[in-house]
Write a structure and sequence with these properties.
Layout lengths: L21 H29 L9 H7 L3 H29 L4 H27 L19
Length: about 150
């Protein structure tokens, strides 16, 4: 009987790569952010749809009142950041799966990064700079709940 020699290295004998394993941390992020997003989204839906008058109460005044509280500002910003990064990371995985390494893959990943960054910046600015009753605005343009 003849033994067949194999040149494949056993996992313990393979040289280990140095540095941060970004794929592993991306995988961990997707699981952790998914769990946190479930809590944030269901809390958001419960407060907006079940508490008070439900969906018919959601209007400009409702959002203005909700975002007057820093707790809800941070709740919504955390939900925004986690959802956008989670989605962009998922799309990055799809780009990796369906394109070969090269220029196209780099362009697609760059576009994903740019879109996520712009949306995160704009969304964060909207939440923290939202002012339903701006000072100096004409009284006829202000919502009814603002003091003229």
């Amino acid at each position: 009987m003849t033994a067949i020699e194999t040149s494949a290295l056993k996992p313990a004998d393979r040289p280990r790569r140095r540095g941060v394993n970004l794929e592993k941390w991306g995988w961990i992020y997707m699981r952790a952010s998914g769990v946190v997003l479930i809590v944030l989204i269901f809390g958001h839906l419960f407060m907006n749809l079940m508490v008070g008058d439900g969906v018919k109460a959601i209007d400009f005044g409702f959002v203005g009142g909700k975002w007057a509280d820093p707790f809800w500002q941070w709740w919504d910003v955390l939900m925004l950041w986690l959802a956008l990064i989670h989605g962009a990371n998922g799309m990055r995985t799809i780009v990796n799966d369906y394109t070969s390494p090269g220029v196209v893959q780099k362009v697609l990943k760059g576009a994903l990064f740019a879109a996520a960054a712009v949306l995160i910046i704009l969304g964060t600015l909207v939440v923290f700079t939202f002012e339903p009753c701006p000072v100096g605005a004409p009284a006829d343009l202000l919502p009814s709940f603002c003091a003229a």
